[in-house]
Write a structure and sequence with these properties.
Low-confidence stretches: none
Order of helices and strands: HHHH
Largest sheet: none
Shape: elongated
Distance between the termini: 37 Å
Strand content: under 5%
Number of helices: 4
Structural class: mainly alpha
Oligomer: single chain
Number of strands: 0
Mean pLDDT: 88
Helix content: 55-70%
């Protein structure tokens, strides 16, 4: 699996911002009012992914230090018997979730930015634009936070180069 390229996410967000701006410009009068809580699920997902990435990073670091302590490198790490191992398939699934979330976050960042580009300058002349501007700002922040959390989770799920994960497991005795 290759990492998500930030350039691709930026191009997607920019292209969708232009497209959303054109759509909102053409159909703003028939759009329903946008409530401030509409982008909240993106923010909740961003917080959950950031906390999950932080937890996974700590668990992987403890597992790596326990392995290196078990090989006799002299570093005092956590007790390997008390350490709950991280399942490799869990890390793979979280990497896929991170990539999907990065793309979704980029899409919504573009859409909310396009809306914000139209309603932001219209606050003084359109009555509904002030509430939609608040929703747009919250939407850009939540979706941008989702992209950042997803990229953080993806970086935690990477195998370190030259790490101890590349050595074959010891042969069973007996």
């Amino acid at each position: 699996m290759t990492p998500v390229r930030r350039r691709d996410l930026a191009v997607l967000a920019l292209g969708l911002a232009v497209a959303a701006w054109l759509v909102v410009r053409a159909a703003y009068g028939v759009l329903p009012p946008l409530d401030w809580w509409l982008p909240a699920p993106l923010g909740v997902l961003a917080v959950v992914e950031a906390l999950g990435a932080r937890t996974l990073r700590v668990r992987l670091a403890a597992q790596r230090s326990a392995r290196s302590a078990g090989r006799g490198t002299g570093s005092a790490g956590p007790d390997p018997a008390r350490l709950r191992p991280v399942e490799p398939m869990l890390v793979a699934r979280l990497a896929v979730l991170a990539q999907a979330s990065a793309w979704v976050g980029a899409v919504f960042t573009g859409v909310w930015s396009g809306l914000l580009l139209y309603v932001g300058p219209s606050v003084g002349r359109l009555q509904a634009a002030s509430g939609d501007t608040v929703a747009g700002v919250i939407g850009v922040l939540c979706s941008g936070g989702l992209v950042a959390a997803a990229l953080f989770l993806e970086s935690v799920c990477r195998v370190p180069p030259g790490g101890d994960d590349e050595e074959p497991p010891p042969a069973p005795k007996g």
